[in-house]
Design brief:
The protein is mainly β. The protein has one domain: AttH-like fold, CATH 2.40.370. The protein is 5% helix and 52% strand. It is built from 1 helix and 15 strands. It has a 15-stranded mixed β-sheet that branches. A hairpin with a 2-residue loop joins strand 9 and strand 10.
């Protein structure tokens, strides 16, 4: 998960932007600047605390991003991604979401995307609970659930982290040297169990994200 394109003290937002034109502004700032060396002690204005920081923040750009591999009992292999971006600029706030599926046996790649205003997407509580139409993701402390569908494919998955969250740059706070910064952490191995629907057939799957 990533949030913040500027120091937290300014309280601007981060996740996948609902207004996609906002994201390149953040990417440009992060690309042009050179990150400083990892500090020997934390320089984060506010230390990362989980599960509090699993949830949305009032910052400029933020996203929850999953990629994984799914296996059926018959040996079928599929890849997926599900990402929700959140963007906030002044009174403008919204979400964008992207859901692709790779069907190895069928040699096919399919995707869908959605853009909505922020109203009704995020539910209060520990961690995050986000819904965009029939797509949803929720979780806290490395116990997550994903649901999404596009023509011909649908997932309903539960994910459990095998390892603690990896805090980027040691403390989860990255300064870029030009007055901008981001918070960033990853869960680098999550075990998956659930259901993949291909056409009209739902199959139990396991996997890793």
């Amino acid at each position: 998960m990533v949030w913040g394109s500027v120091p937290w003290v300014t309280r601007r937002l981060a996740l996948v932007c609902v207004v996609l034109v906002l994201l390149p502004q953040v990417v440009t700032a992060a690309t042009v600047a050179t990150p400083r060396a990892s500090p020997s002690t934390s320089d984060a204005p506010i230390p990362v605390e989980l599960p509090r920081d699993d949830g949305p923040h009032h910052v400029s750009t933020e996203w929850w991003y999953y990629t994984g591999h799914l296996l059926t009992a018959e040996g079928g292999r599929y890849g997926f991604e599900l990402v929700f971006f959140k963007g906030e600029r002044g009174t403008l706030e919204g979400y964008a979401a992207h859901f692709p599926v790779t069907d190895y046996a069928g040699r096919q790649f399919h995707f869908d995307q959605r853009i909505v205003g922020a109203e009704g997407v995020s539910k209060p509580g520990t961690g995050f609970d986000l819904t965009i139409g029939s797509w949803a993701m929720r979780g806290a402390n490395g116990h997550d659930a994903l649901r999404a569908a596009l023509p011909g494919y649908a997932i309903d998955l539960r994910l459990v982290s095998d390892k603690p969250a990896a805090l980027h740059d040691g403390d989860g706070y990255i300064e870029y040297g030009d007055g901008t910064a981001s918070y960033y952490y990853s869960r680098t191995r999550l075990e998956i169990a659930g259901t993949l629907k291909v056409g009209d057939t739902a199959r139990p799957v396991t996997g890793e994200a």
